[in-house]
Design goal:
The chain has about 400 residues and is of the alpha/beta class. It has 3 domains: about 120 residues, Gyrase A, domain 2, CATH 3.30.1360; about 90 residues, tRNA modification GTPase MnmE domain 2 (Four Helix Bundle (Hemerythrin (Met), subunit A)), CATH 1.20.120.430; about 160 residues, P-loop containing nucleotide triphosphate hydrolases (Rossmann fold, 3-Layer(aba) Sandwich), CATH 3.40.50. It contains 13 helices and 13 strands. Strands 3-4-5-6-2-1-7 form a 7-stranded mixed beta sheet. Helix 5 packs parallel to helix 6, helix 6 packs antiparallel against helix 13 and helix 12 runs antiparallel to helix 13.
Length: about 400
């Protein structure tokens, strides 16, 4: 009599192989936990029984079944889904081509059937899994899939075993008064100012008169030639977006058409779109031609945070002392898109305008709207201290940590 056929889960790469900071793989189906567990080892090279580790983050190593050699260090999250006989395992490994490729090969040797991400059951069970119900763990796993920089990956992963997870665990375990609890919660909420930028890139609109060097400066900040650059004024007829990294923070840089009297209907539409983009951006970078003695200064009173760049400083550009007094409240940097002069100062000024100048700090970071909402609910409950309000606040903190399905 033949033995029962072993279940064959499916495995796929959720992120493309390449220079990203992390690669995410997913294994779905009956037998997924056993499949991954057979090639997963802990720090002491012991096998890991994922059936006993459901909904926990496991740090370990994936080994090659052929020679038992380590392939890469990984974070693994396993769970049983509500659907009968269905298991799900997420694997996060280092970015690049080799780690993800080798782990896919190891999964195939362990009995998984490789497929494309779109061919996974339910396209990765996106419709069956509510990541918010997994709390911070689920949200980290969701967002590292789309992380554009190593810094974002590092900060998000810090929230799993330390950071926000550890901070909320302390709040729930310690016997704090309502006043003490409120003070800590309010401090956590201040991290949302820049924590939200980890998962939703900020937008910076590069605006200013024609021929001020906006496109050249945008190319300098982005490290690529995404905009057409010529000496002819008005080259940029529409806005061009660049995905850039400013000290590791993902940013969408929007290079817009120059401000001037339009020569035709097409240019008038381009300028109108530039104005619209700047209105909806998080920060405006207004670029001025430093060689022009008739430089046009922006009317930006009451608008979004603005950084002024006096460009072409490698030529006969005027001093920052010439900036009108009414613009003194705005940060002003002398720059040269040709020599790179002022690039570091401009980067710092833009990060400061976004409230993201302290990216190197470690500790708890609120990085999703759901987390912010739960913390705000806790803080609101504690405005009038009582036993009931303390219980309400602790319940909101538990939801923030463990998810909404607790």
């Amino acid at each position: 009599m033949s033995s029962p056929q072993r279940p064959c889960p499916q495995a796929a790469l959720l992120t493309p192989l390449g220079p990203a900071g992390v690669t995410v793989l997913q294994v779905i189906g009956a037998g997924a936990l056993d499949c991954v567990g057979s090639i997963l080892r802990d720090a002491k090279n012991r096998t890991v029984n994922l059936a006993d580790k459901s909904n926990r983050i496991i740090r370990g190593y994936i080994i090659d079944p052929a020679d038992q050699q380590r392939i890469d260090e990984v974070l693994v999250h396993a769970q049983h889904l509500a659907k009968p006989n269905c298991e799900l395992v997420d694997i996060c490994c280092h970015g690049g081509v080799r780690p993800g490729q080798k782990i896919m090969e190891a999964l195939a040797l362990a009995g998984a059937h490789p497929v494309g991400a779109k061919d996974l059951p339910g396209a990765g069970f996106a419709g069956l899994i509510d990541r918010s119900s997994c709390g911070i763990v689920g949200e980290v796993l969701d967002h590292v899939c789309h992380a554009r920089t190593d810094l974002v990956v590092r900060i998000l992963l810090e929230q799993l075993e330390g950071g926000l997870t550890a901070g909320l665990n302390r709040l729930l375990s310690e016997d704090l008064s309502a006043e003490q609890l409120l003070q800590v919660i309010n401090h956590l909420l201040t991290t949302w100012t820049w924590g939200k930028r980890l998962t939703t890139p900020a937008t910076i609109a590069v605006t200013g008169p024609t021929n001020a060097g906006k496109s050249s400066l945008a190319n300098l900040l982005s490290g690529q030639r995404g905009s057409i650059v010529t000496s002819q004024p008005g080259t940029t007829r529409d806005w061009v977006s660049h995905h850039v990294s400013l000290e590791g923070l993902p940013i969408v840089l929007i290079d817009t058409a120059g401000h001037r009297e339009p020569a035709d209907a097409l240019e008038a539409e381009a300028i109108a779109r530039a104005v619209e983009q700047s209105r909806h951006a998080d920060v405006q970078l207004f670029v001025i031609d430093g060689t022009s003695r008739q430089a046009q200064f922006p009317d930006i009173a009451g608008q979004i945070p603005t950084v002024l760049a006096v460009n072409k400083a490698d030529l006969d550009a005027w001093s920052l002392d010439a900036v009108p007094p009414e613009l003194a409240k705005h940060i002003c940097i002398r720059t040269s898109a040709v020599t790179g002069l002022g690039r570091a100062e401009l980067t710092l000024a833009l990060l400061k305008a976004l409230g993201c100048e302290n990216l190197s700090q470690t500790g708890p970071v609120v990085f999703t709207k759901r987390q912010q909402n739960r913390l705000q609910r806790a803080a609101h409950a504690l405005q009038v201290p009582s036993e009931r309000s303390l219980a309400t606040a602790r319940n909101a903190l538990s939801e923030c940590l463990y998810g909404d399905g607790i």
